[in-house]
Amino acid sequence: MAQQIVVILIFLIAAGYLGWRVWKSFARKQTGGCAKGCGCEVDKAPSSLQR
After folding, report:
1. How far from chain centre, in Å, is Cα 29?
2. Closest residue by Cα to residue 40 from 48, 29, 50, 32
3. Tens of each residue's pLDDT in the chain, 51 residues
4. Residue 26: what pLDDT?
5. What are the residues whose beta carbons fall under 8 Å from the beta carbon of 22, sequence distance 6 or more?
6. Sign of the alpha-carbon torsion through 30, 36, 37, 41
């Protein structure tokens, strides 16, 4: 019985993680830029020009 509970918990954690990753990938498409989160949004104006 304890083994079944552990397996179910691991499965639920893995399913939750995959769901979070899918939601996160779709949510980032609205913000623009790449999915790496490096701050390269198209909307963002440069704060200062450095040459």
Report:
1. 11
2. 32
3. 999 999 999 999 999 999 999 988 887 655 555 666 676 765 555 555 555
4. 80
5. none
6. negative
Q: What is the DSSP letter of 2?
A: H
Q: Please name which of 16, 30, 17 lies closest in space to residue 43, comparing C-alpha atoms.
A: 30
Gap between the Cα atoms of 24 and 13, Å rounded: 16
The separation between CA 48 and the C-alpha centre of its own chain, rounded to angstroms, equals 29
DSSP state of 35: T
Q: Where are the domains of the chain?
A: 1-29
DSSP element (H, E) containing 41: none
On whether the CB atoms of residues 34 and 42 are closer than 8 A, the answer is no
